[in-house]
Amino acid sequence: MNAAVAEMQDGNQTAGDKQPLVEIRGLSKTYSRGKQKLEVLHHIDLDIARGDFFALMGPSGSGKTTLLNLIGGLDSPSDGSLTVDGKRIDKMGENQLARWRAGNVGFVFQFYNLMPALTAQKNVELPLLLTKLSASQRKKNAGIALQLVGLSDRASHKPSELSGGQQQRVAIARAIVSDPTLLVCDEPTGDLDRQSAEEVLTLLQRLNREHGKTIVMVTHDPKAAEYASHTLHLDKGTLVEQQHTA
Amino acid sequence: MKYFNLVWSALFRHKTRAVFTLISIIAAFLLFGLLNAVRVAFTSGSDSLAGNERLVVASRFSIMTGLPESLKARIAAIPGVQGVGHENWFGGVYQDPKNFVFSFAVDEDYLGTNPDILLTPEQRQAFAQTQDGALIGETLAKRYNWKVGQKIPLQSTIFPRKNGDKTWPFTIVGIYKTSKDAPNGSDQMFFLHWKYFDEANMYSSHEVGWYVVKLNSPEDADKIAQSIDALSANSDHETKTQTANAFNASFAKQIGNIGLIVEAIMAAVFFTLILLTGNTMAQAVRERIPELAVLKTIGFSDRSVLALVLAEAVLLLVIGGVIGMAIASVLAPALAKGSGGMIQLPPIGWVIWAEGAALMVVIGVVVGVLPALRGMRLKIVDALAGR
Fold first, then answer.
1. Any idea what the CATH number is for the domain that residue A186 is in?
2. B355 near A CB under 8 A
3. Helix (H, G, I), strand (E, B), or coil: what is residue B123?
4. Cα-flanking dihedrals φ and ψ of residue A176, to 5°?
């Protein structure tokens, strides 16, 4: 066991000396299937500092996506505590979590998950519908987000009229339009060719380095993980290794 | 309103399916509009104020059974009676059997008992002085372009003249207007002299179809009705006296309980619509579970998702319903015109529109509630994983 993993298990690990944005202590997640209980995550301790770019790696079924869902407030832990930006999100109810997600987290999925009937512009505006911004302000902010991902000229296109890489960039624009602190990305390059994957990863890296977004990304691809500043390896629901890559 | 785009795009995500569903909704509300117009047409005249100030005295056994003319003077003598007139069904058609004319043989006092018929003194005098004279309603005159002074041959479907000829010649002596509260179809009547009819028809019997009695006060209606019926008690022409409103209602019921028929048809139509639209909504939402999960992921609350799906269902019903009712609004007068007056459909008024709007919302909620609950209750993690 290397020093990083030992540090994790002591519960003191942080990526550098930055103030932790995400503090995970003794986090476990158990699913019930009939009478059978399946523990997917075992007593995870982890700190993610503000401005970090973490890649979560591990074999299928290791609990990467479960951990990501917990960090993003999509699911609730069975045990342990999960604090994000000083707020105990493991204590929040469904509606509270929904409000918290709207203001604090941006999500990027493997298959983009855009609304097929809406244009790129309207897809990006979706999170802003939950704010009190005027229609013109929503449009303006969505325009800025699309500009940031290099798709201003595709604003009026529907997802079916865009390539996979472009769709993922629209999804990233949707994730950042409400200026969240944290971006959670579940295999964002899993459905893309190498070139599009590199474009997307470069964009995420830029958002991390230039705009200070804290990013947690699940990936199977070691090349994708190289874009992150830290790589965590999970196996059978336990953190087994941490690498500082940048 | 900021969610309208989202609801609208979801609604027309599958254009073909949405259009076919809309067509079924349009058809249902078109029927709703037209059938309600039919119901109103049959029940109008059964709730007017003037209808409570008049009594109709008909045979107790059947409206087709005549009453003796001699009864008129005895009814007029009852205290509280202001005037008495009588009518006979003539059953006229003009040139072709499909050109049906609502024609009645009336005595000289009848017009005084009917406040819905507005006549000038000159028209009254002309009618009184012309044996084959006829008074016709404005709409009837327009339909056949009839003018005052014109000779009109009208065929009776029941009563031939003494020479066996069913064609009766009439001279139009006046075109009357109707009061604004007149029952539907009042402006389509054709009035001829009862005396002329009684003397010239092959079955002359000196009998009248029914009496119309105008009262000094509607409050005396019950008491006077009993007095009138008492005049013929235990005779071979016993009468049944009721207000004009009640008479109109019972006349309509001879055709059938139109309200019940309309309700039964509409219940079947809307039941089918609920099944059809409910299935469409369920399918549409089932296909969009991952999209709803994404909405919840980015911060839409459970209630927001519930409201979005319900709004989608209600919007679908409102679009189809409004189009259907609008078509019915245009079609009802067109049908009346096209039928040459045989079908008398009143305009689709605000009451029918209000009932229709309420139905659109209720059906929208009914068909949307189960899919909406499913959307509301979905677990994001499971939905995104396709479980």
1. 3.40.50.300
2. no
3. helix
4. -100, -5
Contact A83, A160 (CB under 8 A): no
Predicted pLDDT of residue A18 = 54
pLDDT confidence band for A1 (50 / 70 / 90): very low
Touching check for B289 and chain A: CB below 8 Å? no
Question: What mean pLDDT is reported for chain B?
Answer: 88
Same domain for B208 and B118, yes or no, is yes
Cβ separation of B294 and A113 shorter than 8 Å?
A: yes
Instruction: Give the pLDDT band of residue A15 (cuts 50, 70, 90).
Output: very low
What value of ipTM does the predicted structure carry?
Answer: 0.88
Partner residue facing B302 (CB), from A69, A95, A115: A95
Q: Say how far apart CA B340 and CA B140 lie, in whole Å.
A: 9
Measured between CB atoms, does B288 come within 8 Å of chain A?
no
Find the CB nearest A113 among B5, B13, B290. B290
Are residues B344 and B269 both part of a single domain?
Answer: yes
Domain assignment present for residue B199? The answer is: yes
The count of structural domains within chain B is 2
Give the nearest partner residue to A117 out of B2, B9, B303, using CB atoms: B9
Q: Are A188 and A108 in contact (CB under 8 A)?
A: yes
Residue A217, phi then psi, degrees to nearest 5: -125, 130
**CA A5 from centre of chain:** 22
Q: Which of B2, B291, B296 sits opposite A129 (nearest CB)?
A: B2
Contact criterion met (CB < 8 Å) for B291 and A115: yes
- pLDDT classification of A12: cutoffs 50, 70, 90: very low
Domain span at residue A203? 50-77+92-244
Q: Are residues B28 and B132 in the same domain?
A: no
> Range of B65's domain?
61-237
Candidate from B10, B301, B380 with C-beta closest to A117: B10
- Give me the torsion for CA of A26, A32, A38, A41, rounded to 10°: -30
Closest-CA residue of B relative to A66 is B381
Query: Which regions in chain B score pLDDT beneath 50?
Result: none
**Distances, alpha carbon B287 to alpha carbons B10, B169, B293, in Å:** 11, 72, 12
Contact B24, B322 (CB under 8 A): no
Q: In whole angstroms, give the CA distance from residue B207 to residue A220.
A: 102
Both B122 and B154 in one domain: the answer is yes
Compute the distance between CA of residue B367 and CA of residue B144 in angstroms, rounded to an integer: 49
Whether residues A113 and B291 touch (CB distance < 8 A) is answered with: yes
In this structure, are residues A149 and A173 in contact, taking their beta carbons and an 8 Å threshold? yes
Same domain, B335 and B293: yes
CB contact under 8 A, A174 and B381: no
B377 at A interface, C-beta within 8 A:
no
Which site among A92, A96, A107 would you substitute to test the B interface, given the most B Cβ atoms closer than 10 Å to its Cβ? A107
Q: What residue has token string 């409570």?
A: B52
Q: Which of A243, A246, A236 is nearest to A64 (CA)?
A: A236
With beta carbons under 8 A apart, name residues in chain B contacting A122. 5-6, 9
Contact B302 A122 (CB under 8 A): no
Angle between helices A164-176 and A135-148 (to 10 degrees): 130
Domain count, chain A: 1
Q: Could you tell me which of B210, B107, B106, B105 has the C-alpha nearest to residue B161? A: B105
List beta partners, residue B230.
none
B301/A103 CB distance under 8 A: no
Assess whether B95 and B132 both reside in one domain: yes
